[in-house]
Each structure stands twice: as structure tokens, then as C-alpha cells.
Specification:
Helix content: under 10%
Shape: globular
Radius of gyration: 13 Å
Strand content: over 45%
Length: 115
Amino acid sequence: QVQLVESGGGLVQPGGSLRLSCVASGGIFSFYNMGWYRQAPGQQRGLVARITPGSATEYADSVKGRFTISRDNTKNTVYLQMNSLKSEETAVYYCWCGLGSRSFWGLGTQVTVSS
């Protein structure tokens, strides 16, 4: 069983930046695929970014060039640096962990982009 705890959400103005963190416990972090998804009210949860154990990355087209996912295996932590945020990116951001066919989710952290 893997537990994921997100932090770093909050209120930011359009064009601003935030960095989300997700600490994982249980198992061997360096073996896991990690990622971030988001869900806005009335919408389905969708991929923001993912990172493999070897640090290969994948991004949603809408965030390429503005968001950066990274991991620190010494701290069992995955990060999402978000720059140039847009109001439509207001959502709950969820940390995801994948190992084989198993997926684990955090409880989410709210990101609100508003002036």
C-alpha cells in the first residue's frame, strides 16, 4: 500500500507560479511511476504530467513549456512546478502513483487561479 500526501496548493493570480509537492510512503519510491492529474468542477480528472522511475516525462499539451514535473528519490517526493498559470487551470490537483496495474491516489490539493 502506498500513501500519498500533497501540499503546495493555494490561491495565485493569473500568470503566477506554484510548486506542488507529493510525499509517498510505503514501498520503494524509486520503482514507481509518479504523476499529477487535475479535476475541475463538473469535469473529468485528466493527466497533467507523469514521470517514470528513469525520469522520462510526459505532459498534457496544454501545460507543455509551463509546467515541470520532477522527482527526488532521496526524499520520496515528486514535484510539479507550475508557471504562467491560467484561470482555467483552477482545479483539485491529485498525486498519482503507478506500479504495474496498481494505481494509488492522494486526496488532492486545491489550486485556485484568480485575481
